[in-house]
Amino acid sequence: MTLQLSDLDRALLGGDRGPAAALAMRIILRMAEVFEAGSLLDITQAHIDSTIYIGEANLEFAERLAQGGARVAVPTTLNVSGLDEHGWQAWAVPPDWAEKARRQMVAYQEMGCIPTWTCAPYQTEHAPRFGQQIAWGESNAIVYANSVLGARTERYPDLLDICAAITGRVPAFGLHLDENRRGEVLLRLTGIPPALQHDSSFYPVLGYLLGKLAGDRVPVLEGLEADPDEDQLKALGAAAASSGNVGLFHIVGVTPEAPTLEAATGGRQVQAVAVDLAALRSARAELTTGRGDGLDMVVLGSPHFSLAEFRRLAPLLHGRRHPDVRFLVTTSRAVAHMAKKAGLLDPLDSFGGQVTVDTCILASPMLPAEVRRLMTNSGKYAYYAPGLLGAQVVFGGLEDCVNSARAGRVLRDDALWER
Amino acid sequence: MGTLIRGKPLVPGQASGTALVSREPLSFWGGYDHRTGEIIDRRHPLAGQCAAGRVLVLPYARGSSTTTAVLLEALRAGTAPAAILTTGAETFFALAAIVAEEMYQRSFPVVIVLETDAVALQTGMHLRIDLDGTIKMEPGLPA
User: Fold this and answer.
1) Half-sphere exposure at residue B102, Cβ-oriented, CA atoms within 13 angstroms
2) Nearest C-alpha of chain A: how many angstroms from B24?
3) What is the pLDDT of residue A2?
4) Beta strands in B24-133 (DSSP E)
5) Which of A63, A253, A323, B96 is deepest in the core (most CB within 10 A)?
6) Backbone phi and psi for residue A81, each to the nearest 5 degrees, phi listed first
């Protein structure tokens, strides 16, 4: 298949904008071949997940691009880095590791990216609009942009996101195109108590199950009686994009491309799967590892905590955490700043809690070795912490998390899940 | 004498090794330790196995967009599988292979095989992958 290249594409490829832009264009073209894309299309925005410091190879790649003179061609936000730039010293981050993670942060800023350092770029002023073609990395951001905002991005892997930002071009394929955005499997909620549907702890569990059932198909969810808010949809998407390959979901009557079931599926017949309380209950159980009520730390904020979430947390924070249980919220520097101005960090401070910005416990080696058991309200933290940190994890609601931190042991109110 | 499967090379290359097969997708972020090649996703059936130097057979990469970054690290460190065979359209692995070629002149085949062909692939078999995507299967040596 021969790709149609623009004059600018050819100029980039030929090295007119330096060796790094040529490298980025070569990678875009090779990937267009892999995707069997017939053409390239213009993007208007990018979000870069390659900011997470993984090791030498990714740092070498970033510095090769930056030192080769590459600059982004479209407004480009940055995902979490490996480091709370101004607060890492308070944690267990090894200094030599910190130095490399910092170099990687510098390299992406040199390329002209906006230092947002957040995995929730859709909750900033840079959020894309309906129908906008964008190239986003970070699985939870991708699924939110596609599903909730109706912007269009394929699931960009690390390294390709920055190549798209530098060239402003992506292969025309996947979720950029109408025909791939239709629902392919129908998940029908049946017999789920409305009180549970209104509870925030419902959404990470539903997302986790959705990801497992959908695999790499676009799921359509039907039968939701509640009207989920932004943070509930964010929690659902983040969990679905962890347990499955979900880059887009539709909720009939809720998300913008699903006013009706017919609109969501493009009128096609798709496989239907019933989702009942028993399935959700066992999904919830899978998000917890290990046994007993031992607890070392409560961690909130994956994806990064929003201002609205700080607002919900504040009134729960009466008393003080147990001295043996740390209490951490991860968020962006912008949201932390707003929360501080709104007086929402004072109750957290009195409770004995801490805030980390720019990164999270999965992207930074910040947790001391004695933290062996975590509790979280995040499906994404619960999904990844055992593999990435070797820690045990307990999933619970926001209130459960606060109550457990205060008590010094895991307390969960299961009433909504029983019946 | 071995049997042949015709795969479609996403990133062509030559490699051989012992097969490590799963029908469960895997995220390399939180699932693959690039310092050792060990599979560390405790919810995955291959948890605890070392995939370094082996031909890893998976349906596709699950979840995180950091899978590519982790595989690139493994390719640089020499702890990557010898090749990856997938049954679904897979791009995260292909990208790591393409970047490794650009950065380190290292060849890493990523080949798509039909699901109906993949059922013949068993952990422990010896697999030889050719530039054109042909996979030669030989029974593994007795343990």
Assistant:
1) 25
2) 10
3) 77
4) 32-33, 38-39, 55-58, 83-86, 110-112, 126-129
5) B96
6) -105, -170
DSSP category for residue A410: -
Q: Which residues contact A358 (CB under 8 A, 6 or more apart)?
A: A80, A81, A83, A84, A85, A117, A118, A332, A333
State yes or no: ipTM above 0.85.
yes
Domain A7-179 identical in fold to domain A288-410: yes
pTM for the predicted model, two decimal places: 0.94
The CATH architecture assigned to A7-179 reads 2-Layer Sandwich (3.30)
Beta strands in A181-292 (DSSP E): 185-189, 219-222, 250-251, 271-275
> Mean of the per-residue pLDDT values for chain B?
92
Confirm if A352 and A327 have CB atoms less than 8 A apart. yes
**Which of residues A351 and B143 earns the better pLDDT score?**
A351
**How far, in Å, CA of A66 to CA of A313, rounded?**
40
- Full residue range of the structural domain in which residue B79 is found: 3-138
State how many domains chain B has: 1
Give the strands of the sheet with A326-331, arranged side by side: A354-357, A326-331, A297-305, A373-376, A392-395
A30 within 8 A of B110, measured Cβ to Cβ: no
User: Testing the interface with A: which of B24, B66, B102, B110 to mutate, by most A Cβ within 10 A?
Assistant: B66
Can you say how many angstroms the Cα of residue A171 is from the centroid of all Cα atoms in its chain?
23
Specify whether the CB–CB gap between A85 and A102 falls below 8 A: yes
* Identity at B67, one-letter amino acid code: T
Helices and strands, number each (H, E), in chain B: 3, 10
- Residues in contact with A89: Cβ distance below 8 Å, sequence separation at least 6, in sequence order: none
- Would you kindly state where each structural domain of chain A is located, as residue ranges? 7-179, 182-285, 288-410
pLDDT value of position B143: 44
Nearest neighbour of B69 by CB, restricted to A50, A243, A384: A50
Alpha helices in A255-344 (DSSP H): 261-265, 277-286, 307-313, 333-341
Chain B residues whose CB is inside 8 A of the A57 CB are 69, 72-73, 75-77, 103-104
Q: Is residue B143 part of a domain?
A: no
B48 touches chain A (CB under 8 A): no
Domain A288-410 is in which class? alpha beta
Q: Give pLDDT tens digits for A249-263.
A: 999 999 999 999 999
Q: What is the CATH number of the domain that holds B87?
A: 3.50.30.10
Residue-wise pLDDT for A106-161, tens only, equals 999 999 999 999 999 999 999 999 999 999 999 999 999 999 999 999 999 999 99
Q: What is the pLDDT of residues A185-222, one digit of tens each?
A: 999 999 999 999 999 999 999 999 999 999 889 999 99
Q: Rounded to 5 degrees, what are φ and ψ at A164?
A: -65, -40
